[in-house]
Design brief:
By secondary structure, the chain is an alpha+beta fold. Helices cover 22% and strands 22% of the residues. It is globular.
């Protein structure tokens, strides 16, 4: 089974509140490359040109923390979801 096939088997139970917070002031003023758009394995980050800000669809988060590490300016505050919420891996 390929990795993308395995990921489709995962179950997600999203909380109402995001476990990923973006400081848009830091993101707008300091971050030039916006690595979060490229490093997330779930491809959950997008750029809203009208608002000039990054959006994240936290409900599909794979909980790897890559975005927090890649954000060299410190605009992303990432924590694990609260108990019983988040991703449930089924294979691997």
């Amino acid at each position: 089974m390929r990795i993308d096939e395995k990921l489709t088997k995962d179950a997600f139970k999203p909380d109402r509140e995001s476990h990923i917070k973006i400081n848009h002031d830091i993101c707008r003023n300091k971050c030039k490359i916006k690595y979060c758009l490229f490093v997330c394995p779930g491809h959950l980050y997008s750029f809203n040109e009208e608002l000039n800000e990054i959006n994240v669809e936290f409900a599909g988060c794979l909980e790897c923390g890559t975005c927090k590490i890649a954000c060299i300016e410190g605009a992303i505050e990432w924590t694990y979801p609260k108990g019983e919420y988040g991703v449930q891996y089924r294979y691997g």
